[in-house]
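User: Hi! Is it possible to get a structure for several chains at once, not just one? Here's what I have:
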Amino acid sequence: MIETLDIAFERAGHSRITEFDENNIQFGKVYSDHMFMAHFKKGYWKDMVIKPFGNLSISPANTTLHYGQSVFEGLKANRAKNGDILVFRPEANARRMIKSAERMCIPPVSEEMFMATMTELLRIDRDWVPSKPGTSLYIRPVCFGMDPYIGIRPSEEYAFMIFTSPVGAYYTEPVTVKIETHFTRAAAGGVGAAKTAGNYAAALYPATLAQKEGYNQLIWTDGVHHEYIEESGTMNVAFLIDGTLITAPTGDTILNGITRDSILTLAREWGIEVEERKLSIKDLMIAINSGNLNEAFGIGTAATIAPIKSIGYEGADYNLPSVDSWELAPKLLKTLDDIKTGKVEDVHGWVYRI
Ligand code: COI
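Assistant: Yes, the chains can be modeled jointly so their relative placement is included. Here is the combined structure:
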């Protein structure tokens, strides 16, 4: 791994850290003092700098504004009891970003560059990592085309940035979801598996309609017949049916979630039957109606483990057993938290210490 790169540093004249209240953090509203930035020009990443978090200056013709050539990641740093800063599985995010970049014709940021630049930024802004249970420093790497050109072709120049934000829970309460059977998030051969801007933009309108009906989020279904469960707009989803943990297999249309992989690993180690397979709405309804759906939850970096309290389908709402009676989701959440904050031994090598 590259330990150091040639990264210039412009320190913020004034730290805003006193403006943030660890006891009252909303997701994505406050950003730490510095950000990392690099530019890709003539085949190389250069002009690497950590500088005060601030606005960018871009051309109105910036290709990303028009055509969405952008990929991003989301990962978290936590503070251990002894003050150490621990990042959860950053190498996996770096590798996923490379895959997303390839799909979107963006020159990938190498795993080494991702790790070294993130490490440097976190060393500088380490005081921004909150310590209260349930809080963390969310890290947002993003890479996008910079050409001032409105013709359609891959950009020649790119920006790669990392900035961070102290966060609490994305969902503070168990969520209500609606199974979407009209709109489509992703299709085979498309970009559903890439963490790219347009996937989220395209989901906004259907999600807004569902929110007007009182749901927090959608559960997307396959784009062919809307028959099989895929993922939610902000997270992967899993169902505990009669003791078996079932989640859709990753592939073209589903984001390869790092939290998803982590909880499947833990569940398997605990002897729980895990099935990565297509789950039809029909089978989910049978499980609900026969009382066999024990738990259902979203899984993501921002969302962590988000219990689902009710599922809407074709105009009817189906309530799950009270979250207080669940065992698996709370145990997964606690174990993940304990690993992320260094309370238990990291036997999987998931924790990266700054
Ligand atoms: C994440 O979980 O990191 C995401 O990018 C999802 C988004 C809802 C914040």
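The pocket of 2-OXO-4-methylpentanoic acid is lined by residues 74, 234, 300-303 (CB under 6 Å). The first strand starts at residue 8 and ends at 9.

User: Great, thank you!
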